[in-house]
Fold each of these.
Amino acid sequence: MADKITSIDPDLDRLSVDTARVLSADAVERANSGHPGLPMALAPLAFVLFADVMKHDPSAPDWADRDRFVLSPGHGSMLLYSALHLSGYDLPLSELENFRQWGSRTPGHPEFDPAHPTPGVETTTGPLGQGFANGVGMAVAERWLRGRFGSEVQDHRTWGIVSDGDLMEGIAAEAASLAGHLGLGRLVYCWDDNSISLDGPTSMSFDGEDVVKRFDAYGWQTLSVDTVDDLDELRSALAEGAAEEERPTLIRVKSVIGWPAPNKQNTSGVHGAPLGSDELRAVKEALGFNPDESFVIPEGVPERWSAVERGSAARAEWEARFAEFLSADSDTADLWRAAWQGKALPGLAAALPTWSTADGAVATRAAGGKALAAVADHLPTMLGGSADLASSVKATVPGGGDFTKSENGRNIHFGVREHAMGAMVNGIALHGGIVRPFGSTFLQFADYMRSAIRLSALMRLNTTWVFSHDSIALGEDGPTHQPVEHIATLRAIPGLTVIRPSDANETAEAWRVISEELDGPAVLILSRQDLLVLDRDVLGPVSGLGGGAYTLACDGNPSAVIIATGSEVELALQAREKLAASGTEVRVVAMPSWELFDRRPEAERNEVLPPGLPAVSVEAGISMGWERFAQAHVSVERFGASAPAEVLMEKFGITADAVVDRVNGLLSD
């Protein structure tokens, strides 16, 4: 980070700022949709960050050692798009003119989409607070990689703009608390203190606390800039924030939303609607722009905004250091390359643990913990942790050490902060170089993480969510801890692969598929109770998990199919024996993942589930969605209760006899 920068041409600086203001207002007006207030108010801050402060190279937006920037209030997206265009990223003016239109790279909120990228956009922001926590995750990733590979290859900062709305969200409080605890000194956030929210003044709901003192208490450095239009004061505060290595920094930046709109500034009227033609004309006249022209960029402004020359020089310096790093240690260089390509090292399948029937019954959470140990050896930059439930979920990297203020281990203690954990894991994945980061807790608490999980699917991130205590069979803790609808709600998220293995070996295979074959986020759902290890000498091979569903057992002339997941696969096999004793032959199918099954060709799916053969689904949760595959269901359609697991399964009808009854009833119809 350079020392404080001072302007050599204040008039050009002011013109450069005002150009971003007008560009943003023009784009919102053209779209007849969007939020002009924040981009107009914070154009000075964006200018100083992108033109003078941040280490970034618009000609190489994926450069590994670039600074990261997060616009957490994504409704102000035109601020980011204007800054990216003006500073030299491959975001043509035509894309700004196409703001919020079909197929454009300037959607309503910033979107990180590997298949349709907007260069310079580091994360998808929209739900307030998520971006705040994403940035904390990015700072974790940077510090871990710097500790692992050295500052010669990882030496950058995470910058962000956060809003009043972000700071009202509980997720931001969780993430800020953990960031302070971890001493993430290379994290600098600018709080847009404008005192306006969509419904009106923030005094209606947000004047009962002192935000600066709150962040002081979290262990952050706090600074203040009295007016966003003082560029030198901004530069000074940002330099001070960058100089602090022991604490994250929050800079309170006072702004007037929508300035200089004469009638709508400092009102909620510029929070979520275009200015209107008359107000926009007045803004342009006030700033010295021709009110009859749109999307105008005055001479000299692109050159002042441009970060290409400065960024290219910084990248060239890094590349020289990086070349020395690669030549000094070939093993470390290979590890770096694999990490940034998101690949597992060779040999994972052979290293995974296996179980036999002689091992008795094994909870899949326990099997998952042992499998994770092997996976971590082959994904040596995997980081993750639990929301204070590592001892229960078993999702830890054995021997990996802890990630703390003073240690650079691989196990993150998120504390009881499920909201922050979800979004931080996304941020770790977004940073790059960390392969398959994971977060873990009880399945019931996936609700706390749902927005982050949804965003991981929206962004196609290679994250893994590990949830144990997967049904009413967790027992005496009762309905507050017993998930009933949760598997169905996770399956409802597009792009999310949900896997519920039926025994220890399926669990290990699930981890292999996630680590070596899957592109996108995965949910691994595991049991608290012990499950029998299935006899693969007589049943279908565990490799069938990769196809989502496979035949475990099939009688000679089956008249029905029993489809089951997780712990209920045992019941399906028991029901098969009971039905066979009465002369009814069936096929038993394990279906650990609907999503993996859906990706198979139709002919292969029909081999597993022959069309016309009636089917019964068996899963200790609600049956919603199972009608795709089955005509009758053994399920749990109400909340659980407090009792031992075996009592609950009997009382709720999750038994082999219940499966037999459903099959017989289906065949008699």
Note: The mean pLDDT is 97.
Amino acid sequence: MVSEELLFILKQNNRPDFNELIRKKASYEYLYHLSFQRSNIIDWIELKKDMHVLLWNAECGALTGVLLEKAGSVTTVCETQAEAAVLRERYRDRKTLSVYQMDLFSTADSEMFDYIFLIGHVAKYSGLLADFYRLLKKDGSLIVADANRLGLKYFAGDQEEYLGGYFTGVENRYSVENADRCFSMQEYSGLLSDAGFAKQSRYYPYPDHKFMTDLYSDAWLPRSGELNDNRRNFERDRYLLFDERTVFDALLAEGVFPVFSNSFLIEAKKLEKAGKRSVLYVRYSNERRECFQIRTDIVQEDGVKWVYKRALLKEGREHVFKMETAFAALSSCYTTENLIFCRCSRTNEGVRFPFVRGTLLYDRIRRALDAKEDVLVWELVREFVRRVLGDGGSRSFEMTDGFREVFGDVTLDKHMDCPLFCDIDLIFSNLYVEDSTGVWNVIDYEWSFDFPIPKAFVIYRALYFSYYQMFQGTHVTFRQLMEAGGISQEMAGVFRVMEEHFQRYIGSGAFPVRSIRHLMGTKTMRLADTSDPEETARFFAGKLRFSIDREEIQDGCVVLSGWALGVSLRKEAFAAHIAIFGKGGVPIDAEITRTKRRDVLDAFLIRQQKEPAVGFDCVFLVPEDGIWQAVFSVGAKKKKYKRS
């Protein structure tokens, strides 16, 4: 059992490196019990040092540490003696922790706790909800979080949370009512109402409640295109029956996203009590170096919305406080009012920004793109370029030690125009356009630097991310975007290297959960990625073509994007098969996402009725020796691409 192995490890090592242990074991159980990201689900809740909290089914303590940091005293209840032993050993220095086994803990008392937490396995303990109601103080809260049996990922081919199997929860195929199972939002809410909880606030953890990065609410739902991190099948293989991001966008447009959220979190109270402060949205950025890990909250206080940023670790406090200095520097050199930087002020824990009203530039362009208003799309893109080039002051580029550390030792023209102080993160989702005045407000400038950085690089980053977030698969090509920004192919190549170095700079030593699945070996299976190779081989006689748009390293994985197709003599197109091989021809497991590329088919004058998905995004772990190649094939024809 994992709990017994953990106890042995904890006793043999005073302060074991949990991240290294997860990598070494490469098993879901170790990730689940040891990952610090597990605590995101409750870290955002405001606790005080005079509070007494209860964590039910504490397991091996993944959520216990954050409660010990925030609350005055913590009572935990474990299912087994082995879990209780792990918990005591893991937090042996904490005097404010009490550990019980379930059969030794009494629920007969009343009004003992300010908060009770039940995270996961809600159905299993649903019979105790009335006891939890009694155990809470009058103004206390019960926090429950669990998977949604109607979560979109279960329609898309993921297996049921507890019992496994495809469509088990969707079809409500549960044999025992009180067994480990999932409920829908209405079912969870009904259980809490039956237990006496009059006030319920609903939240939607994403991608799920176990490894949450974003927390949405009814007052702050996701934007179109935002839900794009959907492959989190660490424990089991899954199918990929459709593009979840696209379907999420459709559900958001129809106003039914809450029904199909992958997970729920509900704060249930005894009394209907109006609070002065409510949390609308939370985002965790903790797949970075420790000194850059932060949390962003959007809250409403006395009817006014504010945005807070705070460091998750003490090592990151300086990074967060630098935003106040960055605001002053940016405001002093951006004087033409092309770009207005949202005011930043320091708080005890971080910095605070006033909430800016308007429409994100990202949303404006996306709506115009969806409506096929091409003139407006290009007007907005060119207006962005004009504003970036026309503000921020001017100085020539020169290589500095700071630049080398962050962006690498690249060769750039010394005559390139640079702002006096540079925010490199002027991406479309960080720019709010006021609907009435047309003012462009910059809402986030976390990544600002005082050494010279070309304005063209700032433009490149915004266009680069916008392409992969909304333009890819449309008639707008990457080269067209670069041309609109005045960026040559040669310049784009240099900027790509800078961006990769920047990502390594902020992610050095980090522990990206999203890439751990590749180590664990769970598979994501598609029903039909390409044409049937045997059928194609019988009559295909044409040309095989491919193009690589992007090759970079992210979170220890290679990301390879582009298009690959075969064109027959009859002008029919076939999506190419893609395989990745390491040194000596050893196959490498790769996660391949297919996309339709009308722009590519138009370039080859393809007009067939069935449109093959010739675009691809290919993700795989970087081999230890760094050697790999991609092999594209259609029928008997093959072509190879080796790492650059």
Note: Residues 528-642 form a domain with the Immunoglobulin-like fold (CATH 2.60.40).
Amino acid sequence: MLISLTVKQFALIEQVHLELGEGMTVFTGETGAGKSMLGDALGAVFGARASADWVRHGADKAEVTAVWEGSDARLDALLKAVDIDVDGELILRRVVTAAGRSRSFINGVPTPLKTVQQIGKLCLDMHSQHEHQALMQDSVQQQLLDARVPSLLLDDMQAAYGDWRQLKSRLQSLHSERGETEQQSAWMREQLARLQALEIHDELADALQTEVDAGRHHAQIQQAAADAVQLLDEAEPSVRELIARAGRAIVSAEDFHAGLHRSREMLDQVDALVGEITPELRSVLDQSFDEIGLRQSEQRLMDLHEAMRRHDCDEAGLLALMDDWQNRLAGLDTAGWDEAGLSQALEQAGARYQQCASALSAARKSGGDALVAELRPFMDKLALAGMQIRFDVRPASVESDKSDESVQSDESAWHDSGWDAVGIQIMSNPGEPWRELAAVASGGELSRLVLAFKACGALEDMPQLAVFDEVDTGIGGETAWCVGELLARMGKQRQVLAISHLPQVASCADHQVVISKAEKDGRTITSLKTIEAQSRHSEIARMLGGDGEQSLQHAREILARGQVAALS
């Protein structure tokens, strides 16, 4: 709720401070006194686009401060999201310079205008002939209608759309990645074949290096083996013959000395080892030079080093990489199965969406008819008897001439709220064509239409502060009483500020503020004054066009009737 409003150097206002209460507050005064400036000041502090015309002539800046008390879940969530701490009160301040630049503050902290505007959408519902009205927004018109639709249908619609959209996105990703995936697949297969040809295993590089070294030094190896065999087994005397002689020299005396015994045993062991060495050396001699094998080992070793350099890893890393590629290629091989499964699931999800959207569309049409029937009595009382109204529920297709059947397959019209475009249409006079509400409704008609919606309980989620400027334009008599009573009723759930010229409307208010202008030091100044009791009688009498006792008595009667409406 708006607790207070302070306005300084704003248009004709030099400085005013206004304390506001619950319920309905009416602003009255002579024509030209500056009642609409109050609406401009509220718009300014809640984020309206800045204008240099707001600044009082001769002043450096205009300033508007509003104190807001209380919150709801949406406002709390917004303040938390923008990291604004609120302890009881929300103080909004807007400063506009003569050059048209502005700054906004919340609780003394500089705040982006966008944040202030978001707060304004949650707190302030401005109804005037010169301001953008919420009821003219397509989204609000749909919300009004969807409030009369079973919530289960809306929930099912959102769930069906979410499932369909998720599957469609996955399938689109699969399709869009196909070309790139095929290139990646070809590259992986090529690289994998090259690595598989190397027959990689742990420590392969060392094994290949050994093979290459042996091939490159084949002659040297053969010579070394031949020389060794000659010395060990073929020379006169050979190493084995000398070992045998040493053994025979020891054996005759070994029983007399342990050292000789041990020496003879070791000579036997050496002879056995030498006997094993000779066959090994002869096998080396039997090996012929394999030039082709050498070249293959050299190439394989070179390819292995190149692969390790290219992939920046050792043999173990190459083996892990090969395993990863094999798994990925196996997954790609099953992509066709995945695509088929996704396509089938998408088709089923699309059918589910169409089923939910059709049910929701039918419910909207039925709900629209019911809501129009509820509105009719209030519209008749509010001097809107000649206006016909309907909710237009049509396919939201890009091509406006598509049939309902065609739009079912037009996925561009599919949304989480169904495939309908919902709007309010009115026929101002019999025989005239149906036209969009925003195109033909005047400010006064629109404000009274909002009252009709409120009267039948269709605007429960609107902002807590509603401002009506000239809501009573073009009406009088019992219609004026109906407007006043409906505004008073609205004030039971929301804070209502109404600017009015009609005594019937003013008398229904809980509070009344008189706006007047006077000349001071050669300048025109607008002032505001909250009046009560006897002062209200006088102001109502002025609005009736007289100030005598008869007018005062009439004013008392009107005020008494209005207060009954305000208290009921």
Note: The radius of gyration is 48 Å.
